[in-house]
Each structure stands twice: as structure tokens, then as C-alpha cells.
Amino acid sequence: MSSASVDTKSVAGSSQSIEKRKVDPNVLAAIQRATPPKIKHLRPMLRLILFQLYFFPTSFIAIPLYMLRCIIPYFRLNKNWSFISAVYILVVRRVMRNLIRFGVQPIVPRKGGLRDRNTLVATIVGCLNLSGPGGSVVLAKENVKALKLNATHGRPDKVWIPPAGPEYLDGILAVKTGPSDRRRIVTDDYTGPPLLEAKWLKWSVRALWFTHKPHVVPSQLGAKNKPNRPVICYFHGGAGVTFNAGDLHMGQNLAKNFARTAGVDIFSVDYNLAPFAPSPVQLYQALSAYLHLLNDFGYSPDQIYIGGDSHGSWMTLQLERYLRSYKHLLFADPDNFKIPGLVLLSPWIAPQDLSFKSREANVGTDIIDLSYESWGVAAQGLHKLPYPITDPWNTHSNKTPAELAAMPPCFIANGGGETLLDEGQHFANLLRKAKNLPTSTSNQRVVLSPGELNCKVVHHVYPHQVHDYFTVDTEISKAVKVYKQIGTWIKFTRTLL
User: 138 and 211 in one domain?
Assistant: First the structure.
């Protein structure tokens, strides 16, 4: 690791002191000079309007044709699907392909902006912007006064995450001092120029709480009692370029049902999308969210699970690598730091690696197209980084056996008919081999018990399901079965700590 002089300072929310790195004065000066990123409104609005003008009128023709096609099972994309599922998945495929065609993205949420207000207008505008209503906590009347909620921003299920300070940043997240910065950062896991622009340390992102019961108030900042339940720091999917943590699909279909069924609170991070936030900005925002749970909400590392679906799984694995690689900057007791587990739903493991046969074999029946991945890779600027796309920061299947062996327990779930099936299975087997566990792929039923070592790496495959079926309205009943098993798995992993 790169060396740096340190001084000692107590970290908020921690009973122990941590050696806090002294930051390069040039970096501090750059942060002081920086102004927050500027949001573009006109182009996203025009793209959304064009999408709506095309999609809705043509749907009056397309959907009846889909219904006629799916009457006979032979003509469905998958004859094992029900009529309703077959029609709906065709509609979702059409939505996804047109989102890609028109480059539709929601306007970036901003702290204090219109959609941040606790009003009906804000909710309507959020839904029109494809960013949804947000979290799912329903307060009982007697709790409102007790919480002393702010009258304007009175929702306890929405949190604005402060940007992590420069003392936590090194390696891939080293901060630029300016356009002419010629420094070379040298650490065990990254060697190259600093990548993170100082302006992002002036920018907050939001997160939404989805609690295990609707009337349970999530942890509040400044609470006297520390949280006593596990939490999942969660990252939604969308190739890094689409969807929001609070929209109907990622928020209500996935996060809400996941929390209620698995019995675990979910802190879903509404990280910024590319190209507004190019790589490694999303990793930086993921780190900020994790540290917010740790230092401000009072969670301990062994309470914080990390998870995500699709691109969110890719972010999960990036964050896990950063926490493990730079734990000396982040934790008072780095030698005993542990992540209790990772949840990877339809994980994106290896960008643009076409060696996995399911990518070509299943694309004809899946809801996503390979151009979706290409859009995400280009927008994030992964090919412009000073390391190849095959680097373990990007392609997680290229991690060394030693690194894979050091990873926490993982629950990996794939649909049996999705394009990313093979890479999920490949990654699970890499983990099992590195950890000296039996190599096998489970079926729909996963039995969890403390004596079953294979449950340190679970790979659940739900037959005939599409990519990220957890977000698809007609497939929620299948997703719920997986959430229940994840809830059991979480209880199991608690016994490993």
C-alpha cells in the first residue's frame, strides 16, 4: 500500500479511535476550489419525451400482437412461461430496447431539489421522471412526534449521504489535484494516475430505506441506541445508466419485497448514473454510503451486508475489493474487519466477455440486449481508464485465487434463461474452488444448515427465468421464494461471525 503520515482522530459512530491519514495539502486545496457537478436537464427531458411519443402510440399495436402470439405456448419466447408472463416479458423487452435506442435516463436527483420535497407535486414529478416515489416506510401517527421529523423533509425513509472525506481515499479513488496533476499513485491493487475529480467530494447522493416491516422506523442519525439488526447496503441494477433506487421496478418490486420477505432492512443507494458520473465515481458513492452506515448510523462492519442486482452486483464486488484492500484507512481494527456476506442477484461479473455461451444463446429470449452492456461500458468510460477492462477492478472473474479465498460468504442468484447465467455460475465455482468447497450448482431448493460448508457460496438458479426477474411484475412470486432463502442464509452467516 502507499505510505502516508497519520494523526489520530476519533471516528464518528465508533467507540475506538482510528489513525486518520494526513491528506496532501494540494488535494485539500483542490477540494476547497471545486464546485459541485452541474446537472443537465434539457437533453434527458427531450430523450424522455421522444421515447414517450414513440413508445405509447406504437404499443397499442404491439401489445395486442404479443397477446395473439402468446396464446399458443409454442410461439412464446419460452414455452414454459404462462400466458401472462410471456406477454409481459415481451413488453419489458420492448421497453428495454427502446430505452437503449433513445438513451433514456432520469434527471439527476439533487439535494433540496423539487423531487426532494415532501409534497404531492414532487412525487408526481419523480414518477414522470422515471425515478419513482422512493422508499416504503409507513409511519404510525404516534411515531411522528417522537422522531421530531423536519416539516419540509419529513420522510424517515430517505437519507442524503454526505461525500466521504479524502482521508478515506487512496488507489483507484485517489483525488486529482487538477487537470495538470501528474502524480502516480502506487498501491497493491492500483498503480496509475489519480482518477477521482475533486468536485465529487462536494456532492451528496440519496439513499432510500426499505424496512423489514412497514411500520418499523429505520435507524435515525444521532440515535442514542445503536442498530441491533443486520442491514444490506444495496445497489440497484441498470448497467450503470438507467433506473433509480426508488422507481417501481428497483424500489417497489425488488427492494420492498426483498426487505419484507427476507426480514432484513435494505439501505438502497441511489448512486448517480453515467455519463454524469463516470467510473470510478459510482464506487466512490458506494463507499460513501457504506461509511455513512458505519460512522453516522452506528452500524458495525459485521452488521453490514453488501448486495445488488445486475450492475449493482458489479458495484458490490468493487466495493468489497476496496474495503478489503484499503481497510487500514477505514477501520479502527482492520485486522478484525469482516463483511458478513454479499448478495449478488443476476450479477454482471465480466463486462464485454463474450466467452460465456449464455450471452449469445439466451439473448433471444432475455429482457436485455447486449447493446445495453455496451451503452453502460461506454458511458462509464471503462475503456478510457488507465487499466484494461480485463483488470480485476472491472472483470471480477479475473481476481486471483487468494483474493477469491479472502472474500466473504456469497449468495448468487440467476435466472435459468438469462444472458448472464454462465458468468454467475463460473464466478460461484471460482469462489468454491478458491475456498476448497465442493463445486456444484444448486437447483431451485437450497438447504441451509451450519454444517453445510457449501452454503458459504450459494448459487441459486431459478429455471426459465430472465435476467433480473426480481424486478419483473409477473415474476415477483418466484423472486419472493429466493428472498426467503436469502433471509435464511443471512441467519446462517450470522453464526459464522
Answer: yes
Q: Is the pLDDT of residue 107 over 90?
A: no
> Among 346, 316, 313, 311, which Cα is nearest to 468's?
346
Distance between first and last Cα of the chain: 27
pTM, entire model: 0.91
pLDDT band, very low/low/confident/very high, at 124 (cuts 50, 70, 90): confident
The C-alpha atoms of residue 460 and residue 457 are separated, in whole angstroms, by 10
Question: How many Cβ atoms sit within 10 Å of the Cβ of residue 224?
Answer: 5
Separation of alpha carbons 10 and 444, rounded Å: 47
Q: Which amino acid is at 434?
A: A
Q: What's the grid cell of residue 494?
A: 450470522
Q: Exposed, middle or buried: residue 61 (CB in 10 Å: 0-12, 13-18, 19+)? A: exposed
- The rounded distance, in Å, linking the Cα atoms of 468 and 482 is 12
- Cell numbers of 473, please? 411484475
Residue 125 half-sphere exposure toward CB, CA atoms < 13 A: 14
- Counted domains in the chain: 2
Q: 3-state DSSP call for residue 441?
A: coil
Which whole number is the average pLDDT over 53-77? 96
Residue 33 lies in a domain: no
Query: What is the model's pLDDT at position 221?
Result: 83
C-alpha cell at 338: 469482516
Locate 476 and state its grid cell: 415477483
In angstroms, the CA 272 to CA 205 distance is 7
One domain, residues 86 and 130: no
- Given a contact cutoff of 8 angstroms between Cβ atoms, the answer to whether 483 and 262 are in contact is yes
Question: Of 469, 441, 442, whose CA–CA distance to 365 is shortest?
Answer: 469
Question: Which of 410, 437, 436 has the alpha carbon at shortest distance from 317?
Answer: 410
What the block records as the C-alpha cell of 300 is: 458495525
**Residue 416: CB atoms within 10 Å:** 18
186 Cβ neighbours under 8 A, 6+ residues apart = 2
How large is the average pLDDT for residues 419-448?
79
- Which of 294-326 are b and which e, b meaning 16 or more Cβ less than 10 Å from the residue's Cβ? bbbbbbbbbbbbbbbbbbbbbbbbbbbbbbbbb
- The verdict on 123 and 89 lying in the same domain is no
One domain, residues 160 and 247? yes
- Domain around 72: 42-102
Residue type, 316: T
